[in-house]
Amino acid sequence: MAEPTRRFAVGYALAPKKQQSFIQDSLVNLARSRGIDLVRIDVEKPLVEQGPFDCVLHKVSGEDWTKQLKEYSAKNPTALVIDSPEAIERLHNRISMLEVVNELEIEAENESFGIPKQIVIYESEKLLDPSSWGEGVKFPVIAKPLVADGSAKSHKMSLVFNREGLKKLKPPIVLQEFVNHGGVIFKVYVVGDYVKCVKRKSLPDVSEEKLRSLEGSLSFSQVSNLSTHERDGGKYYKLMDLEEAEMPPESLITDIAHGLQRATKLHLFNFDVIRDTRIGNRYLVIDINYFPGYAKMPSYETVLTDFFWDVLDKKETGLCKLPVISCEKKARKLVNNNGCEGSDGSLPVSPPSREETENPIQV
Ligand SMILES: Nc1ncnc2c1ncn2[C@@H]1O[C@H](COP(=O)(O)OP(=O)(O)OP(=O)(O)O)[C@@H](O)[C@H]1O
Ligand SMILES: O=P(O)(O)O[C@H]1[C@H](OP(=O)(O)O)[C@@H](OP(=O)(O)O)[C@@H](O)[C@@H](O)[C@@H]1OP(=O)(O)O
Ligand SMILES: [Mg+2]
Ligand SMILES: [Mg+2]
């Protein structure tokens, strides 16, 4: 293959575990062959002293990092930051994370979608008094830490069968109704406009009998990330035949993915979906994660390289529509020209339409 004439640098700031799984030779080599160099950012050193980068990818949070990104963008106004820390922040709270699903307006013919009933509890008194929870949330519930910041603690959950099981919980906590879903979860990976849905094992259904048992709760963490061995060793993770599970309708999943992408202004995320077995054609989004384990997605190297190429090429040609930190100015001009403004003045995340491409906007 001929050497690409223009080279781009994509800096990445990732925790060591994430770096190890995401930055595989296969990805680095493919990107390099397309003129994109993936360069590690040393988070121990000031970002402004590193680079230059055409694009910064990151899964690092905190005020200091946000400040560093802002400083970097101010000094390098053409660099893209994927994604904006403010947009990512919304996913760090399990209530704001799912609120966005309820805002989506999607017309589905034969199916419906939503989120499970849930409440957030800040005080122990309220936690131990289910009559104060209001209408809706009933046992069994999954107790999830309110904060979803990627820490091990934020993944520690309990399936609570009855009042007895509430005693071990520590607020602030989200109580989400556990919905029987046949032990299969659908993970939908989004990379820009690309959407891929895969099946994974989940918690098994809870029977009426189980609800009456003496056991109050069951603790678990990152079920869908467990190895088969880990899962089968545990009492509750029985072997489920994933192959038999029917996939959700592709059009519904794609519509939800694109809707979430626009509403959250994020480009790199995944969401977990379950099918309510009581209803059959009702789908519930239960979790949204920023920069998930893409290496587990089929052909992740090609998908990610295509995405990098797409955003870098558009940046070069002035067609960048990323509502990320440093594209803000360009985005506003595009808004003025196209009149396709989002509610807060930012642009939809989808790539430009054919007409827009043929009529490039001057920035
Ligand atoms: N409302 C629910 N009804 C049924 N099962 C659920 C529900 N919420 C969560 N689960 C099960 O618990 C698992 C963990 O929940 P969730 O995805 O919210 O946690 P997480 O720690 O954020 O996961 P991830 O590792 O994907 O970030 C899910 O994969 C699913 O198996
Ligand atoms: O562990 P992996 O790399 O595979 O990715 C997991 C990722 O872990 P990491 O970012 O800490 O590595 C998790 O992020 P945090 O919530 O902890 O931030 C979360 O997004 C999971 O859903 C991902 O698994 P997947 O949903 O793809 O199965
Ligand atoms: Mg999840
Ligand atoms: Mg999660």
TrEMBL record:
Biological processes per GO annotation: inositol trisphosphate metabolic process
Cofactor annotation remark: Binds 2 magnesium ions per subunit.
Domain Inositol-tetrakisphosphate 1-kinase N-terminal: 10-88
Highest rank taxon of the organism: Eukaryota
A single Gene Ontology CC term: cytoplasm
Alphabetized UniProt keyword annotations: ATP-binding, Kinase, Magnesium, Metal-binding, Nucleotide-binding, Transferase
Family the UniProt entry places it in: Belongs to the ITPK1 family.
Role description: Kinase that can phosphorylate various inositol polyphosphate such as Ins(3,4,5,6)P4 or Ins(1,3,4)P3.
Name of the protein in question: Inositol-tetrakisphosphate 1-kinase
Protein source organism: Actinidia chinensis var. chinensis
Taxonomic classification: Eukaryota, Viridiplantae, Streptophyta, Embryophyta, Tracheophyta
